[in-house]
Amino acid sequence: MNEKNKCILSCREVFKSFGKKSNRLQVLNGVFFELREGDSVAITGASGSGKSTLLHILGGLDVPDSGEVWFDNENFSHLTDTKRGHVRNYGMGFVYQFHHLLHEFTALENVAMPLIIRRTNTHEALQKARNMLGRVGLVDRQSHVPSELSGGERQRVALARALVTNPKCLLADEPTGNLDQQTAEEVLEVLFELQKTMNLGMIIVTHDNSLSSRLGKTYKLMKGVLS
Ligand SMILES: Nc1ncnc2c1ncn2[C@@H]1O[C@H](COP(=O)(O)OP(=O)(O)O)[C@@H](O)[C@H]1O
Ligand SMILES: [Mg+2]
């Protein structure tokens, strides 16, 4: 961790529960977290411990019951849903265990999608998408649809889509959880290379100890707190 780098994403005393009364499940119990520019952090913990919940809250996809989330000097709870969506679309990239690519679109179109949604002109969006596909080693597969790609290739397309907007940070929820070891390694090599060259802040939720050991810091989520 480099304390001199700017803090880009943080939370303070985040509580989150699901359900009501006797069904109430307290998932997060006062979480503090900080991610600085260019840092990489692993979040580990048992299944059901609340890792995805925390990642959703940090990414502005869900709101805490109480506590604060800050991204790039903006307090999420002071923003409208629309503004929070805007901050998220411009500042963050997301990758999940499953690629969630649109099956009727080509790799190139999938990668260009976040830019097109932002109303970037089509020519520029496709150019940036092609460039990003090149950076994940898939420029020669640009006109293939997801069903014509292997699992690792799809996940590299998903990575290119997450990063085509040049975000400050990447939030990844078990990004290699669905891949065999060798394929996972190929995806991770691309990911680490991009992290370095783009100076990305990165949070990876993972069960894989060999992955977490390669990140700057590892936290464990247990009983609703990080340690
Ligand atoms: N929307 C929801 N409604 C009710 N319970 C939920 C919801 N989302 C998550 N949970 C529960 O919260 C706990 C933590 O879930 P999750 O954050 O997905 O854990 P993890 O990612 O660590 O496996 C689980 O018991 C899960 O069933
Ligand atoms: Mg999860």
Highlighted features:
4-stranded antiparallel beta sheet, 7 helices, 227 residues, Rossmann fold, alpha/beta, binds magnesium ion, 6-stranded mixed beta sheet
Could you explain how this protein is built, in words?
- The protein is of the alpha/beta class and 227 residues long.
- It has a single domain, classed as Rossmann fold (3-Layer(aba) Sandwich).
- It has seven helices and ten strands.
- Strand 4 (66-71) and strand 5 form a beta hairpin.
- Helix 3 packs parallel to helix 5 and helix 5 runs parallel beside helix 6 (181-198).
- The mean pLDDT is 95.
- The structure holds adenosine-5'-diphosphate and magnesium ion.
- Adenosine-5'-diphosphate (ADP) binds at residues 18-19, 25, 27, 45, 47-53.
Brief digest:
The protein is an alpha/beta fold and 227 residues long. It has helices at 51-58, 81-91, 107-117, 122-135, 151-163, 181-198, 209-212; strands at residues 7-18, 25-36, 40-44, 66-71, 74-75, 92-95, 169-173, 201-205, 217-222, 225-226. α3 (107-117) crosses α4, α3 (107-117) packs parallel to α5 and α5 runs parallel beside α6 (181-198).
Radius of gyration: 17 Å
Largest sheet: 6 strands, mixed
N- to C-terminal distance: 16 Å
Ligand catalogue = adenosine-5'-diphosphate, magnesium ion
Shape: globular
Record field, number of beta strands: 10
List the helices and strands and how they pair.
Blueprint: E1 7-18, E2 25-36, E3 40-44, H1 51-58, E4 66-71, E5 74-75, H2 81-91, E6 92-95, H3 107-117, H4 122-135, H5 151-163, E7 169-173, H6 181-198, E8 201-205, H7 209-212, E9 217-222, E10 225-226
Parallel strand pairs: 3-8, 3-9, 6-7, 7-8
Antiparallel strand pairs: 1-2, 1-4, 4-5, 9-10
This protein binds adenosine-5'-diphosphate (ADP) and magnesium ion.
Magnesium ion binds at residues 51-52, 173.
